[in-house]
Amino acid sequence: MPQMTARAAVILAAGQGTRMKSPLPKVLHKVGGRTLLDRVIDTVEATGCQKIVVVVGAGASAVRDLVVRRLGEGAVAVQDPPQGTGHAVMAAREALSGFDGDVLVTNGDCPLLTPADLEPLFDLRGRGVDLALLGFEPQDALLYGRMLSDGDGRVSRIVEAKEATPAELALKACYAGMLCANKGKLFGWLDRTDNENAKGEYYLTQIVALAAADAALTKAAIVPESAVMGCDTPMQLSQAERIWQDARRAHFLAQGVAMLAPETVHFAFDTEIAAGVAVEQFVVFAPGVSIETGAVIRAFSHLEGAVVRSGALIGPYARLRPGADIGEEAHIGNFVEVKKVTVGKGAKANHLSYLGDGSIGAGANIGAGTIFCNYDGFDKWQTHVGDGAFIGSNTALVAPVTIGAGAYTGSGSVITKPVAADALAVERSSQFEKPGWAARFRERKLAERAAKGKA
Asked: Quick one: which of 57, 175, 285, 387 could link to 14 by a disulfide (CB 3.0–4.6 Å)?
């Protein structure tokens, strides 16, 4: 079996993204809770590329930071000033020094691209194609460059739509922006490109004609339009999100997750949901959520960075924030917010509570209006509620504080000290009564209003 040729990738992420009309760089916008650039890096890594270089703009510090965090300083190439797609690939030359093999070039704003979409490029290279192109057949090809090929599928050049003849515009196959070639040949062709065009830029597509002039074999693989969809505008970003969400909904339904209105449920790239989970309408799974079998996520709940154990009931209108770990058969009800709290098996917090930083023991009951007062303006402190404890409604637990197993707190109490197991803690002012006060108050107010009406 022949040894696989070494693979590298150049990801083009230096575009200004002006049509996105956002202060956030285009490739840092998200689909499914993950940046466009992260998604492309994930895809390229999965193809087995040993070296990945990301071309960034000179002022794109946030994009550079992402690349360094993911791939290290050596993966950054800076295009300064921007002079076209060919110039962008040339900016990666130094970062690829020492590499010998095939170089894949792809855009950094294609969130739906998969390893299976790119593999045909490497397959073409393995079959002796010198320059492998990725193409697609869009429903509306008005703005895309057409790939001109002969009867044997040899591509001779790419013509831009505005420069194409009527016959060329009738062609269906368009260039998607991804290609693959041997590193030496790729940069050899790039060195021969020029910027003699209306924009004064070096176009990557010019190498197709240069390859043809060298009698090099250029062919294209065709993938679905959605696979190579870029995100240049908010509209395109929303379209990519819809396509991705629809695919995830279909995936989870096929895996045995019950959703009566799947079109209203929103997933993240790393959402994990086991078979046998029921998800009601208008639920959002932000990144970092794992749901075990038998759990029910009721309507209008928002979950992020949370684990929900088997048989738990969440919502409706619940919010689970990062660090929430909801135990088996536990209940987190309407308008309850949980953050960095481990909730034990069978514990219940059914109404109107904030539970932040700490733990709740198995079988404990958290009354309506309970607050874990975890922040003093400088530091976060923890509250621990023991197994089987009962927290009365409208209790404020001022951290750091521990409620012992089986203990009770009286409704309306502000608990600032530890409560022993099986004890009752009550903290409230004495109630007193003033006979006739309400009647006198009403009489006085009515008299004041009457006097104002005569004035």
From this structure: 57
Respond yes or no: is residue 351 known to be catalytic.
yes
Residue 158 and residue 175 in contact, taking contact as beta carbons nearer than 8 Å: yes
CB atoms within 10 A of CB 160: 15
The whole-angstrom separation of Cα 135 and Cα 222 is: 5
Residue with the two structure tokens 């300064």: 80
The phi, psi pair for 53, rounded to 5°, reads -120, 130
Strands 174-182 vs 102-107: parallel, antiparallel or unpaired: antiparallel
Asked if residue 119 has pLDDT above 80, the reply is yes
CA angle 344, 347, 350 (to 5 degrees): 135
CA 155 – CA 172 distance, rounded (Å): 13
Determine if residue 39 is left, alpha or beta; phi over 0 gives left, psi from -120 to 50 gives alpha, anything else beta.
alpha
Cβ distance 177 to 230 under 8 Å? yes
CA nearest to 177, candidates 139, 208, 150: 208
The 10s digit of each residue's pLDDT in 16-59 is 789 999 999 999 999 999 999 999 999 999 999 999 999 999 88
Burial class of residue 299 in the structure, from the number of CB atoms within 10 Å of its CB (0-12 exposed, 13-18 middle, 19+ buried): middle
In percent, the amount of the chain with pLDDT more than 90 equals 90
Q: Which residues contact 360 (CB under 8 A, 6 or more apart)?
A: 341, 342, 343, 344, 347, 349, 366, 385
- Which residue stretches of 159-264 are H helix? 166-169, 183-191, 206-213, 234-254
- The residue annotated as part of the active site, out of 29, 302, 351, 384, is 351
**3-class SS at 417?**
coil
Do the beta carbons of residue 16 and residue 57 sit within 8 Å?
A: yes
Average pLDDT of span 333-347 = 98
> Is the confidence at residue 89, as pLDDT, over 70?
yes
> Bridge-partner residues for 143, per DSSP?
none
Q: What is the pLDDT at residue 1? A: 40
Residue 262, token pair as written in the block: 């799947």
For 57, the token pair is 């703009």
Count, in order, helices (H) and strands (E) of the chain: 9, 33
Tell me the pLDDT tens digit for each residue of 156-203.
Answer: 999 988 888 999 999 999 999 999 999 999 999 999 999 988 788 999
- Specify whether the CB–CB gap between 205 and 175 falls below 8 A: yes
